[in-house]
Write a structure and sequence with these properties.
Blueprint lengths: L1 E6 L5 H15 L1 E4 L10 E2 L4 E3 H7 L8 E6 L3 E2 L8 E3 L5 E5 L15 H17 L18 H6 L6 H9 L9
Helix pairs in contact: 1-3
Length: 178
């Protein structure tokens, strides 16, 4: 399976490199595409945030990419939610994650490698939705709904056995040994 990452705007290259290497191990292939632009109409000046659904709808696929993951630094929201870490088309081909609220510095912590791990968890979660997985009741599974950064930090970056089984039933094999 080929996953493509499209940075939108200026995105930390070390995070993109980490996601590329990690997602390639899990799904087989991963490429970082040239940066795109965040559509101006996605910006809500009242909220000082970007609407993730509007960004997702404007995310242009690339031939050969089965899954397209947009990555932004900006804060995003969906619907009436205060914020989201990401959004995906359930069973579709596109997803997006935001690094804004994943940064440890937002919570008074040192950045270190925690941002990379959080970004991987959110990428795996949103790609899981693209692959047809819904939220999982297992709080250790990456498909568990993150209501806050505490939920994100508590869960693993991997799919649980039940979610892996659902993927296998759809003919999707993932490598999570490492």
């Amino acid at each position: 399976m080929r996953v493509c990452i499209r940075p939108l705007g200026i995105v930390d290259a070390s995070i993109l490199d980490f996601l590329q290497a990690s997602l390639a191990k899990v799904f087989g292939e991963c490429e970082v595409l040239l940066p795109g632009k965040i559509p101006q109409e996605a910006y809500n000046p009242i909220r000082n945030q970007y609407n993730s659904t509007a960004i997702l709808e404007n995310l242009e696929a690339k031939k050969g990419c089965q899954i397209l993951l947009g990555v932004v630094e900006e804060d995003i929201y969906a619907g009436n939610l205060n914020f989201v870490f990401g959004e995906a088309e359930l069973g579709g081909s596109r997803a997006i994650i935001s690094l804004a609220r994943l940064r440890p510095s937002v919570y008074g912590m040192k950045n270190g490698d925690l941002l990379k791990l959080r970004a991987l968890k959110e990428a795996m979660h949103e790609v899981g939705h693209v692959l047809g997985l819904t939220h999982c009741p297992n709080p250790n599974c990456v498909m568990f709904f993150s209501n806050s950064i505490l939920d994100t930090d508590a869960k693993d970056w991997k799919y649980c056995d039940a979610c892996r089984k659902k993927l296998l039933e759809r003919g999707i094999k993932v490598r999570l040994d490492e």
